[in-house]
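Throughout our pipeline, every protein is held as a single compact record rather than as scattered files. Nothing more is needed to write down the fold, since each code stands for a local backbone conformation. For reference, a complete record is included directly beneath this paragraph.
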Amino acid sequence: KADGEVTHLLEAPPQEQSLTLVTGRLHVQGHGLLHAVTLNITTDVLVVDDLGRIVGDFHNSPCPVGDGANGNGASGGGYGGRGGQGEGQLATGAAFGHLFEPSEPGCRGGTMTTSPHTGGRGGGLIFLTVLDQMKVDGEISCNGEDGRNGGGGGSGGAINVHTYLMQGYGKFQVIGGDGATSPYAGGAGSG
């Protein structure tokens, strides 16, 4: 439905903030939004209209190795590459994950020492199995959150696509969040 929204239960604990859909045809119309921290979609045909979005939401779960380093001017979270170095930081969020079969969400940016919870959250995780064709004129994304008050940006998550035919003019985005610029410069998250 245009302007519609589909997601998990808002009260769900973090480990249950996922959505699994198995269908013959999935159509996200303009201004429609399908989102969860983890989306696992299997369909014969996927259509995402212009201004339609499928989004892997920010999350607070810890990462195995890629969280940004804490401190004044914290570093960004890592994923496919290292997170950005914050002002006065030697360490950054470590690179991890698989290039061809990504299966982990993004990592949190580092937090400023004197102000907790300032690191940006990592982006979510989307698995798409489209058995016939997909047409994307909208957006499919798992971006990281920007850092706040000297915190590092969260790293982008992952989009894992298996399909027979892909068409459209839309975009796939996995962008790390920006590091905060005040009072210390935090590093950006990896994309």
